[in-house]
């Protein structure tokens, strides 16, 4: 373990408006790009920013507090196993751990600061995975994965499984998933070992969501693919424009949302076969970087601190 970072919390009060719309803007004091968000239940949630901050809420997003973890390193993703233990990762090999609900952070960053760690996931209080890209001169897009079996205190680098690693996905007690170029990787033992299946040939995916027998993949160039047979076969959904999709949430095996750059949010009610665009609040335009479910709410975050939410009852 490296230095223990003690931090000052700054309260930020949220006020929602335009209650009549499906998506409502959330006003708060964060102006930096929000790059990741995670809720462990309806009340306890966490976010991270490009400027090295972590946000903490204990009441479902009504009030947030901010903590500066590393002002010099852009943070990319955040994941908590419960309301106390969590991890945040970022560029320059940044990797931090907390067991105090985000109030204090331990520095477990890589000794090599060249890689970017773009996604992190805690399967439970012991097993965790972080993925990104090596950014080595010979193969800058080569995938990088790290695995921990002690809650993020120590990390082991794994052999590369491909190019262009995407976001990690984990729900409940299920497997951990992530994509590489034309492949989907799955682990049932907290990232210790992986099984790989082929997806859409020649298409780079970024985000994954699994619900029952339904799986959905999304990424750049308007890629959305779905499977209704536990990933054995994949079909591409028809999307009118080549959007860059960055986030994906499934409510159940039929209903889900995909979001991305230029404020695109689309909803499916048939397991990813067809999609309908949902409108943002009037006058609002931003790149969406991540979404998370908080009880009966879905929250989306992105550039310039923009945050919106909607009911998903």
Q: Characteristics of this structure?
A:
313 residues; mainly beta; Methylamine Dehydrogenase, Chain H; five-stranded antiparallel sheet; 0% helix; disordered N terminus
Write up what this structure looks like.
The protein is mostly beta strands. It has a domain at 4-162 and 287-311: Methylamine Dehydrogenase, Chain H (7 Propeller). Helix content is 0%, strand content 46%. The protein has no helices and 31 strands. The chain has strands spanning 4-6, 10-13, 15-16, 24-27, 34-39, 45-49, 53-57, 63-68, 75-80, 86-90, 95-98, 104-107, 116-122, 128-133, 143-148, 156-157, 169-170, 176-180, 183-187, 195-198, 205-211, 214-219, 224-227, 235-236, 245-250, 256-260, 265-268, 276-277, 288-294, 297-302, 307-311. The strands form seven sheets. It has a five-stranded antiparallel sheet with strand order 1-12-11-10-9, with no helix packed on it. A five-stranded antiparallel sheet has the order 2-8-7-6-5, with no helix packed on it. A five-stranded antiparallel sheet has the order 3-4-31-30-29, with no helix packed on it. A hairpin with a 7-residue loop joins strand 23 (224-227) and strand 24 (235-236). The chain is globular, with a radius of gyration of 18 Å.
